[in-house]
């Protein structure tokens, strides 16, 4: 099962959620656009949950690498500003990257 699907099912069981950051404190254009869009909000929650889960599966060196990738991705997201199409593209790319990372992990049967 794809990690995204598993996380989506898990988030549905937890009920409605907001973005991975406090929308009341959103000041950047990308954050405001995410808070204004249910689709982007949902992608943000899925991405943040998937990232935290995967990061926790790695030793410190792997966690550092994942954190570096996440920070680079956040910069690319911020470069979109309030452009919703650009933000959707950035989230779709990041979710594919995280899914690929999940697929490369050796998992017990």
UniProtKB/TrEMBL annotation:
Signal peptide interval: 1-18
Write down any Gene Ontology CC term. extracellular region
- Mark the transmembrane ranges: none
Glycosyltransferase recorded as keyword = no
What keywords tag this UniProt record? Answer: Signal
Database matches in InterPro entries: Lysozyme_Inhibitor_LprI, UCP037256
At the top level of its lineage, which domain of life is listed? Bacteria
Name under which the protein is recorded: Lysozyme inhibitor LprI N-terminal domain-containing protein
| Organism of origin | Jejubacter calystegiae
